[in-house]
Amino acid sequence: MGRRFKTEFTGESFELEEEIAKEFLETCKILDLTGLAPGAAGNVSIRTDRGMLITPGGKPFGCLTQEDIIWVVEYKQKTNTAKVKGKFEPSSETPMHYLVYKNFPEINAIVHAHDPLVLKNPGLVEKLKIKTTAREMPYGTLELAEEVIRELKESRYVFIKNHGSISVGKNLKNATSLMLQVHRIFENEGKD
Ligand SMILES: [Zn+2]
After folding, report:
1. How much distance in Å is there from the Cα of 156 to the middle of ligand 1?
2. How many angstroms is it from 11 CA to the middle of ligand 1?
């Protein structure tokens, strides 16, 4: 999938605390193992005091290493440009992640997955009253980001119609466990 913003690289490598990298990559691995990021779909980010760390675009979650993590120093909406450090292009949903952090100071982590169980059961999404984006917008657009932000005002988990899900939290642990919690509900529903 292509990117709908420009990337300005300002360096290939950067210092990253081992603990942060470890937790970040563990989340990606969990999403891969549970099938929530099929292909190279989905993205994970965390807010740091220097900007945000995010997964690269187009790389399967199962084999990510520390070198794949991209640091988005800044994203400028006016010029639609992301200033980054790293070796690869950041996720195509970089503007959405950036704008969620901008709108919600209490959110420090975002998990975006394409949970196949949730996607194929919109009836259950409705039954469980899971907040859902009202209008369908193409991935990677600011319009999609706006739709998601509107729903995040009322819920930490939002279903993006015909696309995937987003969960947020004050840390990565919270955002990840919320994503998995909803996944388990859909899994159990399929059993009976
Ligand atoms: Zn997506």
Report:
1. 17
2. 27
Residue 10, both tokens? 């300002």
How far CA 125 is from CA of 24, 93, 109, 182, in Å, comes to 28, 23, 23, 10
What structural domains and CATH numbers belong to the chain? 6-191 (3.40.225.10)
pLDDT, one tens digit for every residue, the chain (192 residues): 689 999 999 999 999 999 999 999 999 999 999 999 998 899 999 999 989 999 999 999 999 999 999 999 999 999 999 999 999 999 999 999 999 999 999 999 999 999 999 999 999 999 999 999 999 999 999 999 999 999 999 999 999 999 999 999 999 999 999 999 999 999 998 776
> Under DSSP, is residue 4 helix (H, G, I), strand (E, B) or coil?
coil
Residues belonging to the active site: 93
Global pTM exceeds 0.85: yes
In order of 6, 38, 44, the CA distances from 90 in angstroms are 10, 18, 11
**Residue 36 vs residues 29, 123, 174: alpha-carbon distances, Å:** 10, 19, 16
Q: How far is the CA of 45 from the centre of ligand 1 (A)?
A: 13
Estimate the crossing angle of helix 18-33 against helix 172-191, to 10 degrees. 10
